[in-house]
Design a protein that fits this description.
Number of helices: 13
Largest sheet: 9 strands, mixed
Structural class: alpha/beta
Number of strands: 22
Shape: globular
Distance between the termini: 30 Å
Amino acid sequence: MRLFLHLVVMLACWLPAALQAADDAVITITVGAEERQTFGGFGTSLGNWHGDYQKLAPADRAKLSEMMWRELKFKTLRLWLNIDEYSPTPGARDMSVFRRCYIESGIVADARRLGVTTLLLAPEGLAAYMKEAQPDGGRGLKQSELAGYVAVLADFLVQLKAETGVQIDVTGIQNEPNVSDRFTPEQMAESVRLLRAELDARGLGAVKIIAPEQANCDDGYYKQVEVLKKDVAAWRALAGVSSHSYNMAATDQAARLIAAPDGGNLKDYWMTEASDNGTEEPGDARRAASLAARFLNDVNHRVTHWIHFLGFEVSDPKDNATRIVAYTPEPFRPVIFQKYYAYQQLARAFDIGAIFHESRSDREAAMTWTYGKKPRLTAAAAHNPDGTWVIGLVNYTADTFLGVQGWGDDEWNDKQGGHTPAQTIVATLDLSALALPPGTTFEVQRTPASDTVDKPEIATLKEGKAGVTVRPLEVVTLRNRN
């Protein structure tokens, strides 16, 4: 029986698409020949705001760190700096909270030991003396405090290295400067310029700067990047642009802003935060598919680094959707969510250094994840450093998205044009532009894993094309054999 089922799966790659699904569920993905950006890897931030990590037994800390850094192959650790805690009054510099969360806890040391290559600083918030009311009732950075704010960031980076020996590799300017404590586009550009000069003068020329870390990839984000590009000194000082991946992830316009004439990127593109909010239980394929689709969307729009919001934190039943792994400290028990396995599959498929090629859908063009109805099938393709090709696909259809945050909820989504009921999609992968040898075989991996076959599932290239079915809420990766 298992052999028979295996043959059925194999035949699905050869049968005409029209025999396998309704017309609207037959999609062709075409991968272009032009090389684009180079993948810098996955990452996540950790909070440890209540100091729970250091209270765990050494074996339990090791388990969490192994799961996150080694098993998921995450390379970037994002660390939060609360500006109001560090500099609550002019001249104050209190690093005690940051040290307790990340240095004394062993989080940074454990991450470095297990392969993390990049420490990314996430400055967040402003002290009361730094901000002022805005006409709409929000709060923003006082222009008179801009240089002082930059000096606070520079002081922190110098102090951290001097007192602990830890050097931050990359720093932002302000997390989500369009939401709570706001920066104008002009203030963001000036901050980048001034911070670069401060760091260079203090012997921290190796620290890179990214900005603006907008909450959404929207008109506000485009304006921030356009102002940075027009400020020649700020653009030169900037190592990468950055935004977040929630309801509005990377878009064609965002990709065009950093596209180089030779096909690559003018700057790296860091997606420094992605997750959901609310409750979550293990096995939630809807949330896993949402995140996997956003990752594929983003790297298909020139993103180079992709970072989840919270890796592991103490369980919060009201907000576990922000976490990849939630744990209870006593007795120690890690709870692994479905997104963990999706990330593991994607990280094993797309290697550090992979070079992406644009993927286009005959049904949904660039398959852009943005405001309103989401693509049914999202895809991305890359050439790994070992010579293998990898294609990732996510089917974001389901009979209901109730219980999932706004961008999946039925009632909300129906107002934007309707959500897509569950359908198995028959995908034809047109790889003819890549000039792969006829008969090239791809091993197919799926999350959730299929339990119907006990042999590897194979898709074979024929006349430049290969076929694969993608079931509702399924993450599928294909990687050819060398």
